[in-house]
Design goal:
elongated; single chain; 0% strand; mainly alpha
Length: 215
């Protein structure tokens, strides 16, 4: 039997959202620390600078990809929080676990940027995305079972949330699998999935959604 403390702990959704905003802000700020200005002693001409920037471009690509990753999952979490009438201790800890995975993104980003040609680095990065999706799925499923959602939740919202997570994770997994051919193919596929979910077009993968407005 739950103690009184456990029954009343972690009920403030607003505080959960505030913690989320802080963690995402720090994680996204840390991403840029992996971008370093070319060493001045190695640059003696315009040509040297352009060449140094070309060498830096893979890191810049991974940085932009991770900014989109965090942005997409921030929107996903905020969407869920908007439909929570209240929280409880278990839901609070699920979201703390989610934020713990968010805090790993600077590490997995740096690993992939440093070892961009290695499948292991790409798979570690994809595992980070997978864990983000799984914890969001866990959050929504638990909130539904525990009756923590708002009373007037439109009936199409629940399947839309589930469908979006499942389809997105399936596409990410398909994209990551391309690393067994070439890691750049996998990165390109993941970026395309992210662009789709970031700009929410009415074509391409957006066709998977039966009710795009609800997504």
């Amino acid at each position: 039997m739950h103690s009184l403390y456990n029954r009343v702990a972690g009920q403030n959704v607003e505080r959960l959202a505030a913690l989320s905003d802080g963690i995402f802000a720090v994680a996204m700020t840390l991403l840029v620390l992996d971008l370093r200005v070319p060493a001045a002693e190695a640059v003696h001409s315009e040509h040297d600078l352009r060449r140094a920037l070309v060498v830096l471009s893979p890191r810049l690509l991974i940085f932009l990809m991770s900014i989109m990753t965090n942005g997409i999952f921030w929107v996903g979490q905020q969407t869920q929080l908007n439909y929570f009438a209240r929280a409880d201790r278990n839901l609070a800890w699920i979201h703390i676990a989610f934020l713990g995975v968010v805090s790993l993104t600077p590490f997995t980003t740096s690993l992939l940027a440093e070892f961009i040609h290695y499948r292991t680095a790409l798979l570690v990065y994809w595992s980070n995305i997978l864990l983000l999706g799984l914890t969001l799925f866990w959050s929504w499923s638990y909130a539904t079972r525990a009756h923590l959602l708002i009373d007037n939740l439109p009936p199409e919202i629940h399947p839309a949330v589930i469908r979006r997570i499942v389809i997105a994770q399936s596409l990410y997994a398909a994209g990551a699998a391309l690393c067994f051919i070439n890691t750049y193919y996998a990165i390109a596929a993941i970026v395309l999935v992210q662009i789709n979910y970031a700009i929410a077009p009415k074509f391409c993968w957006g066709l998977f959604s039966r009710n795009r407005a609800a997504d």
